[in-house]
Amino acid sequence: MIRDSQRTAVYRWEDKLDFKFNLKRNISFREAHLIVEQIWHDYNLNGYSPWMSLPTLRRPPRKRNRRNASASGSGKVIILPDWALNTKTVIHETGHCMIFQIERAMHGWRVEPGHGKMFTALLLELYERYLGMDKVEARKMGIHQGHRRVRFHTKKVLHDFFFLRKQLPRMAASRLPDFEYERYLTKLKESNLEITYRI
């Protein structure tokens, strides 16, 4: 189990970002679906690996829990209680799914804590790209947050992390049966996708 030492610091940082940049806008469950689909499409994540697919959005199982339940996003499922139906929380949980799936595709296991430096660097990009936040100012706010400072990966590290095209076929070859690997390569070649990650 990887210790998630930045979790509290990230939550505090996001509260400050919301106060300064007004990142929260209440949305419907359908609109939350559309946001996740748009992010997945923009980052060309579908089809790169058998381990990567568009996350499923769900509500907490019992109606009485929908007000107080926790929001979560890991693997291929995002759970959104009533209070989490806003732009900031949906993008935050989508970022968790992106990091989780890419780590599984590249390494086969988690290598970063849930709110680690890779995740916070991705949040900067997502909030800037979809909510119009000033990324430079937001990063400064996190770094200068006293003893609860937020740490970020560098641009180059994050770019390498998302540049999957050259790495995934080799990784997949060691884990997939021959017939699945051939089908995967065919799909990858036909799609001719390109990562368009910007930071």
Low-confidence stretches: 168-181, 191-199
The main β sheet shows up as: 3 strands, mixed
Helix and strand run: HHEEEHHHHHH
The computed structural class is mainly alpha
Radius of gyration: 17 Å
**Average pLDDT number:** 76
Number of helices: 8
Total domain modules:
1
What is the CA-CA span between the terminal residues? Answer: 29 Å
SSE layout and pairings?
Elements: H1 7-21, H2 29-42, E1 56-58, E2 72-74, E3 77-79, H3 87-107, H4 117-131, H5 135-143, H6 155-162, H7 168-173, H8 178-191
Parallel strand pairs: 1-3
Antiparallel strand pairs: 2-3
Any overview of this molecule?
With 199 residues, this protein is mostly helical. Helix 2 (29-42) packs across helix 3 (87-107) and helix 3 (87-107) packs across helix 4 (117-131). The chain has one domain (7-191). It contains eight helices and three strands. It is 51% helix and 5% strand. The protein has helices spanning 7-21, 29-42, 87-107, 117-131, 135-143, 155-162, 168-173, 178-191, and strands spanning 56-58, 72-74, 77-79.
How do you describe this structure in short?
The chain has 199 residues and is mainly alpha-helical. It has helices at 7-21, 29-42, 87-107, 117-131, 135-143, 155-162, 168-173, 178-191, and strands at 56-58, 72-74, 77-79.
Sum up the structure in keywords.
199 residues, mainly alpha, three-stranded mixed β-sheet, 3 strands, globular
